[in-house]
Amino acid sequence: MADPIRLKAWQKLSDRCVHSAPFDSPEREPFSQCLPGTRVDLLDTLRTAIGTENKKIILLFGESGSGKSAVAHTLAQGLHASGALVASFFFSRQHAICSNDDRLIPTISYQLGLCHPRAKEVIIKALLDDPSLLKLARSRDQQFTRLVLEPLRELSMMWKEKGLTAIMLFDALDECEPGYRNRRLGQLVDSFARVLEDKRTANFHIVVTSRPYSRIEDALTKPALVLRHVMENFDARDDIERFLKSFFDDISRAPYVSLPKPWSSPANLQLLVDRVSRRFIVAAKIVTFMEQKIERPSDMQQFLEALLRTQQLTSNVEELYRYLIPSSDQASKGTSLLVYILTLCEPLPILDIMRLVQYDARPVLDSLAAIVYVPPINSAEPVKPYHTSLRDFLWDEAAHYNLTCDCLELMGGALIKNICGFDDASHLHLNEIEDFAAKRDEAVTPALAYAAKYWLHHIWAHASLD
Fold first, then answer.
1. Which residue has better confidence, 107 or 318?
2. Residue-level pLDDT at 449
3. Which of 5, 240, 369, 426 is the most buried (most CB within 10 A)?
4. What pLDDT is attached to residue 181?
5. Do residues 290 and 352 both lie within one domain?
6. Which of 292, 315, 316 is CA-nearest to residue 303?
């Protein structure tokens, strides 16, 4: 029978983890990944680089929309299948909990513990020896040593005997808040550098993807450890052509779509590839937008023809956003609603967005489904952009002010004393209230919980812009 004290220590670590951060978390679906047969040269280069003895940090730089996350996910899939991936963390500004490193160490440690019982034992012992180890106030260095470095040393001895290499993969490091004057990010990199320089973890590598920001370069202060690759140095034209042709072929084979066959012509395909240039995200958005119009073939054909006449689509995804948003059925409301959603500290389901904005947002969101994920209206899944480049493209300083007003208005009308309706609840502990969680969730909607949690943040954010 399992020791309840040890189980409790392991559960505490699990509670501190970001379970949505690993590459295969269902919360990251739909996964961004490479189409079979694409990015072959780049993926082969990265896999070969992992075997390089001196360069232990494989850094993949790429501009927004170049396909870094798709490459990272595909690489992680392969490494996981071979047993080489020991941990992954996909940073994302779409989720506040994934946009900083507050819970990175527990999340990495938990994944290491799942790799092998011996690593798990080292981690549990550290938590039992020092029950305060998981507190945010504790030294990051101590946390890293006890929860990451020591279990890695334990695992490394086994990997070395079997001739294996272990990999950690971090995607979108540029979306991790750097901390005061980049200090937090620098400390994190220094901690991992210490692992990589430790002779007892010789068969350990890290793969990192990021946009080419100076703060990332500044944090990587040990060039002897870093092997850099740049997405734009790998020609993606053939891969984008294969991706678009696959979509056009699927459309041509669809029995319910009345379009010329084949669709589109080889000449049009080549012209569209030229318009897209090297940006996979642009090609993906074009496909998503046309999929929206699949039941209206004439609209899909007109959209493609309009794109082929466009001369401004050759450089980046922002040009496509400039085309897609005004061409939506709800263009006037669409832009302001998108800015509103992108400013949320945590993504919300449609019904809760509607509770905040106080109008039926579904038709507006449906018209923008090429660039934001729109779940069914009664779903608990959140509305979220398909790509973080949309956040860079759309920004309005008034959004925090609008959110502050909506939060205060919602709380003013919905917050009441004893909102859950408990009888004499002041004399009860929460664990004494039957079905407490269900009753709380019924009385406090996610929108109301969001308003109570973040109204002050939006006031502060708005004030800091003045």
1. 107
2. 93
3. 240
4. 47
5. no
6. 292
Same domain, 30 and 90: yes
- Same structural domain, 214 and 246: no
Tokens of 275: 């318009």
Task: Please give the Cα distance from 311 to 270 (Å, whole number).
Answer: 14
Residue 56: name the closest of 197, 252, 151, 154 by CA: 197
- Domain range for 155 is 4-233
Residues 424 and 452 occupy one common structural domain: yes
Are 247 and 338 contained in the same domain? no
What six digits make up the tokens of 362? 């579904």
Question: Is the per-residue pLDDT at 329 higher than 80?
Answer: no
Final residue of a domain: which of 260, 292, 327? 327
Beta strand ranges found along 31-100 (DSSP E): 57-61, 85-90
Give yes or no: residues 306 and 370 share one domain: no
In sequence order, which ranges of 227-368 are alpha helices (DSSP H)?
237-253, 266-276, 280-292, 297-309, 317-327, 331-343, 350-357, 362-366
Q: Which residues are CB-contacts of 385 (< 8 A; sequence separation ≥ 6)?
A: 94, 338, 341, 342, 371, 372, 373, 391
Rg value, the chain, Cα: 25
User: How does pLDDT run across 16-64, given as a tens digit for each residue?
Assistant: 999 999 999 988 877 888 888 889 999 999 999 887 767 888 999 988 7
pTM above 0.90, yes or no: no
